[in-house]
Amino acid sequence: MPGPLREMSEDATSSGARPLATRRALRLVLMNGDAARLRADRACLQQVQYRTDANLAARQSIYAHQHPQINLPAAVLDLAALRGDETVADVGCGNGAYLAELSRRHHAGPVVGIDLSTGMLGAARRRAPSAALAAGDAAALPVRDHAASLTLAAHMLYHLPDARAAVRELRRVTRPDGQVLVVLNGDDHLRELRALIAGLQIISREGPLGDQLRLDDGQELLASEFTCVIRHDFTSELRIPGPEPIENYVRSLISIQDQPDSAAVAAAVASHLPTDEGPFRIRTHTGCLVCS
Ligand SMILES: C[S@@+](CC[C@H](N)C(=O)[O-])C[C@H]1O[C@@H](n2cnc3c(N)ncnc32)[C@H](O)[C@@H]1O
């Protein structure tokens, strides 16, 4: 039986609806123009932001302060209700959080992680040694038609210049009776941190944390490409005890790294943390869109 990957493309790195398009265009204008460009700039993603998993790991580590804790890969994979022998493709797998969760569950079917960044794939290899890994672009996946029963795209569709084309690729590689699970952030995700940064007027209001494609937009986009889209929201809060987690988080952001002195910007944000009223509380809101 052929594997999920296309033979010739183990290393395939070579490469709507009006209301949604209008909203995205407006958001791009509202965002710092540079931030919007950087989020979808392939070279910047590969060579700077995701050259290694250091930036992503810095952002992931802030969730140690989440109350109640949400194990997002576990919660998302629970929604897929896998038997254990299905072929799974994790597109934009990053440092392998979902691959590691599949391995922890002793998933026996073929699993492939695909990412634009070979540095990320190196980190994924350490966390999920049994998964197949391939460098590739979500816009042109190195995967056969209908190869996967479950295709994941977690926190990555907002990096695509043409998210609709990428959604069609996700659909192409997924069996007609399979599922595509897309994870995106809600509008109010990290609202208090956005407000803290905006209040300092160091960078534009939407720049550092405004995803180009949020949960509502993603739901609308996916509903126009799939027969059925079921949305599951996960809300919680971060209780940040002091400046260090904020400084590390802010320093890891794409648009902050584009600033002349990103470390100073991150330190400035962290130094304005209101700590006299107990931990700084930041809401988290992520959603999973189950598409079939
Ligand atoms: C925010 S991380 C999410 C990683 C992982 N899915 C998770 O949720 O932990 C985004 C990942 O998408 C990858 N990525 C960005 N653009 C991509 C593209 N066009 N094709 C494939 N991967 C891409 C990045 O290299 C990065 O590893």
Describe the structure.
The protein is an alpha/beta fold. It has a single domain (4-186, 208-235, 287-291), classed as Rossmann fold (3-Layer(aba) Sandwich). Helix content is 39%, strand content 21%. The chain contains 13 helices and 9 strands. Strands 1-5-4-3-6-7-9-8-2 form a 9-stranded mixed sheet, with helices on both faces. The longest helix has 13 residues, at 18-30. It is globular, with a radius of gyration of 19 Å. It binds S-adenosylmethionine (SAM).
Task: Summarize it.
With 292 residues, the protein is an alpha/beta fold.
List keywords for this structure.
single chain, 292 residues, alpha/beta, Rossmann fold, nine-stranded mixed β-sheet, 13 helices, globular, binds S-adenosylmethionine
Order of strands, widest sheet = 1-5-4-3-6-7-9-8-2
Described by its quaternary structure, the protein is single chain
Described by strand count, sense and barrel closure, the largest sheet is:
9 strands, mixed
Q: How many DSSP H or I helices?
A: 13
Report the structural category: alpha/beta
Low-pLDDT ranges = 8-19, 21-33
* Extended strand count: 9
Shape: globular
Q: Specify the CATH class.
A: Alpha Beta
**CATH architecture annotation name:** 3-Layer(aba) Sandwich
C-alpha Rg (nearest Å) = 19 Å
Which distinct ligands sit in these coordinates?
A: S-adenosylmethionine
Count the domains. Answer: 1
Order of helices and strands: EHHHHEHEHEHEEHEHHEHHHE
CATH homologous superfamily classification: Vaccinia Virus protein VP39
Distance between the termini: 24 Å
Question: What's the CATH topology name?
Answer: Rossmann fold
Query: Proportion of β residues?
Result: 15-25%
Question: What is the average of the pLDDT values?
Answer: 86
